[in-house]
Specification:
about 325 residues; alpha/beta; two-stranded antiparallel sheet
């Protein structure tokens, strides 16, 4: 009888859910760490606020172990300083940050809405993103999920340098593209628009094409499924939480809101991270996609080269996100 009860207690201890703020036993921490998927997050953090919300979700998810953050597009050294400060204030200064090559749009300018946050972090020499990415793949062949939530410049450069090593990624989860739905409110304020070139693809069309033809398993989160809004009540709850992570998100949000004159963030990139952690949030469909010269993402006949999420559950995603970042 005693052995039966001991078995019940062990099963309960291994299966109980840990509430926010509750200490996790060392044995359970070890089990979580060994089961975690290895990820690298490639990001253009600093323009839109969704990159910071996305990284925050990954930091709060024991299902992933972040091997590093690589910065892409535009002023990548400043983006790296921003990422370093954000990680430190969130309590994760141990996560390395690597700097991608600086590449700017041929026309127009970038809106680096959170520049002041990054400028307050001291400059220091950091590894290059392409070298870092390839070296991590060599160390962990077939194990790394690369979550690409910015223009694919670093990915394209890695393919150019060593395509064979790049193909040893486990998968790429990519926020990008527009198949049947464009940016909400861009041309039709009352509802979804027609498909249009999406930012991450448009910025570096050549790099995007290299990713889509690389042969690496590709999971695409286009505008069709990622336009989930973080509304006022959720924001108030998040900003009032008072952790190092939510305090950093609060500061970055207000810099973004002031710089862009917007109030309600769209969680594009956070939905991609959410899928990498909990796939049922965004069911996939096998499709063949082609990148046009103008940055459009077209569906064509033929063997599938990507799994694509065309529709997500907004309520389920927000419940998951808020539960991770601020608790139930």
């Amino acid at each position: 009888m005693r052995l039966w009860w001991m078995g019940v207690i062990v099963v309960w201890m291994l299966g109980y859910s840990v509430q926010p703020g509750m200490a996790v036993p060392q044995a359970q921490q070890s089990a979580q760490a060994s089961a975690s998927q290895l990820v690298i997050i490639d990001t253009d953090i600093g323009d839109d606020i969704d990159d910071a919300f996305a990284i925050g979700l990954a930091l709060q998810s024991p299902e992933v172990k972040i091997l590093g953050i690589t910065t892409a597009w535009g002023n990548t050294p400043l983006r790296a300083r921003l990422a370093e400060r954000f990680l430190r204030e969130a309590g994760h200064a141990e996560i390395p940050v690597a700097v991608g090559p600086e590449k700017y749009p041929a026309k127009g300018t970038l809106t680096f809405s959170q520049a002041k946050y990054g400028e307050r972090e001291p400059e220091k020499k950091l590894p290059g993103a392409v070298e870092f990415l390839l070296e991590q793949i060599r160390q962990h062949p077939g194990e790394i999920t690369l979550i690409a939530i910015g223009p694919e410049t670093n990915l394209g450069a890695a393919i150019d340098r060593d395509a064979e090593t790049f193909r040893n990624l486990k998968r790429v989860v990519l926020m990008g593209g527009s198949l049947y739905r464009g940016y909400d409110g861009y041309a039709y304020p009352t509802g979804p628009t027609k498909p249009m070139p999406e930012w991450n693809i448009l910025c570096d069309v050549d790099a995007a094409r290299k990713v889509f033809t690389s042969g690496v398993p590709l999971f695409v989160m286009p505008l069709d499924s990622t336009q989930i809004k973080l509304q006022e009540l959720e924001r108030a709850r998040l900003f009032a939480h008072g952790s190092g992570l939510t305090d950093a998100l609060t500061v970055l949000y207000h810099e973004w809101a002031f710089g862009t004159r917007q109030e309600t963030p769209t969680m594009f990139d956070a939905v991609a991270v959410g899928y990498a952690i909990r796939p049922e949030l965004c069911p996939m469909k096998a499709m063949r996609l082609r990148i046009e010269d103008d940055g459009s993402t077209k569906v064509e006949e033929g063997a599938a080269n990507a799994q694509v999420c065309l529709k997500s559950d907004s309520d389920a995603f927000l419940e998951f996100y808020m539960g991770r970042v601020v608790g139930r």
